[in-house]
Predict the structure of RNase H type-1 domain-containing protein.
Amino acid sequence: MHNCVDDLLILHRFVLCGRPGKAPIIKSVVWLPPAPGWIKVNTDGAVLGSPGVGGCGGVFRTCRSFVKACFAVPLGLVFVFKVELLASSLAINYAWNLGWHMI
């Protein structure tokens, strides 16, 4: 059971009791801008399976939260660890090539 109303209605129609799954844990996430003069980069990678088809990307932001640049790269067949590592490596490479040395 996926804790949705549709599942509950189906169970009630068949006069069944469900075993609801655990409630999801909700965490508050806050993005903090970098110090003035610095660029902040947030990266992420994703893989469908492991190994599987994956890709990575990143967003560069200023101290005023403006987007300076972003990138997305398809990576083909990869493992999860490699995708995350490549995302970080590409971000550093892009920043360096754009002349941003304070990231």
In short: The mean pLDDT is 89.
